Structures are given as structure tokens and as C-alpha cells.
Amino acid sequence: MEKNYNFKFNLEEPDGDAIRQHMDFDALLGQFEEQQVPRNRQARIRRLVYVASAAAAAVVLLLFVPGLFQNDPLTPESYFASQDFVSAPVPDLNIDYEVKAVADAHRGGVIDYPSGSRLVIPAAAFMDDRGKLVGGEVEIHYRELHDYIDFFVSGIPMAYDSLGMQRYLTSAGMVEVFAEKNGRRLRLAPGKAVQVELRSEVTVSDYFTLPNYYVYLLDTVNRTWEYQNIDILQFAEDDEWEPGAADSPQRRWQQELRWLEADYDLALQELQANNPVPAAPVPPRQATGDLPTLELDFVNGGLPLDPTSDLQADDLNYLHAGTIWEILPESPEIDSRAFRVEWQQVKLRRLNAQQFELTLQHSANEETLLVAPVLLGADYQRALNKYEQEQAAYDAQVAVRERQISEERDSIQAMFTARKAELQATLSEQLNSRPGPLRRKVINRFVVTTFGIWNCAQPTNAPETVTGVNYVLDNGEAIENTTAYVVNEAQNTIFRYLASSNAPVGITPTADNLLWIVNEQGGISIAHLDQPFGEGADLLLETVSPPVQNRDELREALSF
User: Fold this and answer.
1) Which of 165, 183, 230, 410 has its CA 20 to 30 A from that of 97?
2) What mean pLDDT do residues 96-117 have?
């Protein structure tokens, strides 16, 4: 389409008279007001003016009233919502990952760690972000977290939302695991799961009772822990005694229990030996009719047995009259001329109740066969009738024997159980008299169905809180709006509070408690708390000096 644009170039510059003709601004304003301007546009312009004016006023107000909003008190909910859900408070002290490789992801593999823990990787377990299965070498990144120091330096929260009520997870150990290939994160393929055996240590109420733990997955999107399954827990087999404790109660228990179990096994063996099981009759075997057979009479001396044979004539008395020997299909191939040789003697070795190794011997040659005793026709039927009678008699003898020994066996069992209970009671009394919680090594078994942070734990209620506690450093500086970490000796968890004079804080009154904060430079200030405090109390925190440089120093500083 042709476009007729009226472009004008090289316009003449207006002279002074023309400019003066358009300098009547009152007339221009009148012309503007006579035009039809939409009302909504006028209103929008006014609103924009008002908004701009309000913003300007706010800026002026902030300039003349410093700290007006900064001094507004924070709530714990708004404070923690503004924080990263998982954030290491002292990044230099965070726990590193152990990186080990699965040589061929299509085949899977087993990875063992120095802690004694283990991952079992199934075959064809990994896929990339496009859903394609990944083979070849895959790196497994793995780390374990066992106590409140590990939970603190990793920045993993322990709060657990249960039916709208905030609780905390006291842990038997955590793992974080993920996979990479060429620096890119992988996912677990549908239906695949990594089996985990996590070795850890837990507090027990008594030495012999396993506590109940559950498995949770950290949901970083919804900022909570999600229940997954029951933790399959067992005491570690090598948990015999503490290292270096030559005469600990646990060591004495293990030694005495082994002696008791040995006595129990010996008593049962003697009971069996004094009441032997009668020999069971051997059922007759009917000849198939399509395999070669040999007629060999050992019982009546028709063919002598080599004196070095494993079996002699008396050992074959159980054979039925008319027994012949069938050459089994799995026997080595035999030369047909062997049937024309007059063999001088044989060696016989029993393989099982129905199969024998037969070696035919001659001064010039010998032949080894695999054979079975079989019967034909009427001989088989007579042997079958006899066997049924012998089996009925055998069953009756076994029943009589069982009645004779059952009472004595029950007595042995009862004696063993009573002596074991006495040992357990003695050990429990000795252990419970010692200070501090009773702990045992365990193996946590669960499956990882998606990569992330997994926790073997049990929920516990948060301590009762008070409000209005004043946090004060040893230099007199007041602390406001930072994170306070609280732990106690009785529970393997870490509580987080907003350290502020208007926010709640709690401790467990039945245990020693430890509270600390971290400043912007990574410095740590600590308060040891052994009793509850009331509203308005001053909480004095002592700053660690010099600052901790590694996790060993951190453990020393944050010890009870």
C-alpha cells in the first residue's frame, strides 16, 4: 500500500514577531481548559500527585525521625520467616561432605564409611534433570550429623510442626546425601531407593530396651520436617564396652552372658546325646526301567567289599531283599565292556540315603559309577509295605522321645532365662548408679527415596517459656533481634529462639542447659543455665575469647 507521508525538511526558523505572538500564556491556558480532557485521567493524575506527595512526606519524616521503624519489636515468627531456612551460622565450621564414587551407576554398588555406616545403591538408580537414566561413574556426596554441635554448625532447624503445634525432633542421627555427575545434580529414578545403615549412639532408659525412633525428611520448600517411616533400629553388634574400660559393667555383662549361653548350649547337647533320635527308615525306590542296572549282592557276600570301603556289609542291612543297583543318569559314561568283566571286589561310598559312589575293582582295571539301590515289581511292593510299618513305628518312637525330653528341655530354658534376668538386673543397677545419661551404639536402617536431609528422630515438646528476659553481654552490651541457641544434656536436639527482651525463651528445668548467640563476626557468647529464670531476668552471656577456630575448639567451648 502506498503511504503518502508529508515530510517537511529545512523549515525556516521563526523570527521574533512570530515568537512574541505565542507568548500570551493566559490565552494558551484558556485554550487548554476548553479542550475535552477525560475525567478519569484527571483523577489518575491527582492520585499520582497525592502518592508522590505522601512518599516525599515519608522520606522527610524518616530523615527527621531516625529509627522510627527500626525500633519496632520483631516477633519470633516474622524474624525466623525472614531468615534462610537452612543457614550455617559459622560457615567455616560447617561439616564437609565425603565424596565417593559408584563406578557403574547401571550396576549400583555398596559404599562403606569410616564411621561404620553404609549406603547400598541399587542398579539404574540415577537420572538427570530430563529424566534420562545415567550410567558410568557417579559421585555420592554424603555427610552424617550426630549431636547438637553438628546440628548447630550445619544450620539445620529441629523444629517440627505437628498438628499445628510446634515440637522439636530429638535425633538419633542425620544424613544428607545427593549424587552428581560431571558437576550436575542427579535425581533418584522412580521406584529406586538408597538403603542406609547409619551407625550412631542414643540415650536409653535401660541397657536392654531399644527406644522408638522415626524417619523424617527435611522439606526446605515448606520449611518443615515431613514424617516418612519407622526407623528400624537395632543395637550394634560390636557394642560390648566403652573403649579403654577394662572392667566396665558392660564388659562383665558380655563375658558372663557368653559363659551362660555356652552352658545352655552344652546342656542341650547333653540332653540330645542322652536321648538319641532313632534311625529313620529309608523309603524303597522303584526302578525306572529305562536305565542300566547291576545285580550286586553285598549283604550275603556275593561280591566282596574292599576293606577300605566307607561302607561294609553290616551298613547295608537296611536294604530290602531283591535290591539291584541302577546306574544314575549323572554317572560318568561307562565302557560297555565293563559288563563282561568279572570284578573282584568293590568300594562303596554313600553320597546320601539314596545315592552311592560305586568303584568296581579288578587287578587290571577299575570303573567308578554313581548308582542307587532300586527294586522291581513284587519286591518293590513288599518293601513299600514294610517301610510303611517301619515309618509308623518310627513316628511313635519319636513322639515318646519328645515327651521324655520336653520337660527337661523346658527346665534348662527356664534356668537360663532366670540367670540371664539376674545378670541384666545386676548390670542395670550398676549402670543406673553412674552419673549422666545411659547411651548405647545402634544401627538405624531406613531408605532414602529422594536426595536431601534425613533425620532419625522422635518428637519432643518444647520447654515452657518466659518472656521479658534481658540478654546482656559481659561488656554490658544489650542483645536484641538475633538467634539464641539452647541445648540440654537430656535431649539430642537444639532449640532456637529470638533473643529479644519481648520474645519468649525456655530451658528444660530437669537438666543442665546451655544458651549461646553468634555475632556478625562469628564470635560466640555463652550462658550456662541450671535453673529456670523468670520474667525480667538478666541473662549474662560470656564471650568466648579467643574466638573458636575449628570444631574441636567449638566442642570445648559449648560443652556442659
Assistant:
1) 230
2) 97
